[in-house]
Amino acid sequence: xxxxxxxxxxxxxxxxxxxxxxxxxxxxxxxxxxxxxxxxxxxxxxxxxxxxxxxxxxxxxxxxxxxxxxxxxxxxxxxxxxxxxxxxxxxxxxxxxxxxxxxxxxxxxxxxxxxxxxxxxxxxxxxxxxxxxxxxxxxxxxxxxxxxxxxxxxxxxxxxxxxxxxxxxxxxxxxxxxxxxxxxxxxxxxxxxxxxxxxxxxxxxxxxxxxxxxxxxxxxxxxxxxxxxxxxxxxxxxxxxxxxxxxxxxxxxxxxxxxxxxxxxxxxxxxxxxxxxxxxxxxxxxxxxxxxxxxxxxxxxxxxxxxxxxxxxxxxxxxxxxxxxxxxxxxxxxxxxxxxxxxxxxxxxxxxxxxxxxxxxxxxxxxxxxxxxxxxxxxxxxxxxxxxxxxxxxxxxx
Length: 398
Description:
The chain is an alpha/beta fold. Helix content is 33%, strand content 23%. The strands form six sheets. It has an eight-stranded mixed sheet, with helices on both faces. Strands 2-1-3-4-5 form a five-stranded parallel sheet, with helices on both faces. Strands 6-7 form a two-stranded antiparallel ribbon. A hairpin with a 5-residue loop joins strand 6 (150-153) and strand 7 (159-163).
């Protein structure tokens, strides 16, 4: 990533402490972070805090003579790749919506022509006031992205909507806006992820060790790069990716039906889910009681989702599957590629250190009918982008 400059505007609210954590995360992520504090914000947190975290001089006063330029707000706006105001009070929202420029932050806002994000943080009644809502609607019309506040306990003692989102959520919004080239814009991508659960009775089910991390990384990466993404997810404990439409399912049949309903309208389908191959032939309506001796459970095959996709692939649609193997990785995966009628398969071995279920890394071998590429150990986020890169290379121009 080319190092990008993020201008963070911090206004006077108790959520200022979250802005410090956000600036730390942005700096660690590799961004150049420039902070503009309003004078009211300095009543909550001092400039030195942000200067220590970002290694840049913090701006507060429009007429600070210590800066090189007497139009520092314009100079700052010129180098900004993104402007984020967080926390944003009702006052700064009103100023930005109506072009009022009477301090360092508001003049910088007016001078910026880069993408702009704003994270409202205030008392619930102030946030829900029709005037504030009209001002936020105006900002959306002017091209701002408004990051919805969270609901919870507020500093005023009330409980309701108005909390500034967590720094991790704001970091995700920044990444989505500017971190990656939007080379997937205009494409609709369907991703499946996670395990399925096949019920035995109201208490028990058959499943596997998949956590969904690889599929969620693919969905998030595709959204970062501009795609319109739908994620069909089995039961996982992961946070839903922002900017992604998520469809929750439980069983293999649920996932098959969800894929069937969505497949035709997507340009690329990436099937990372670990779908059960078998399910109980009969599901008990009551808990199966323990008895003397062994118990046999007859199983039946589930629907072959990837095979169905290969048989019903529409023109120009690209299908990518995943293959988890314990032996003969490439040979078994190539057979699956041919048998399913798909264009690419991503294979990994449960036996290889750093690959497999649950971890933060993966070791993939990308296989197509004409080539294969063994990727080194890397994070699942990096692996997701490498998969998308390969799909883009393989997709033939119209």
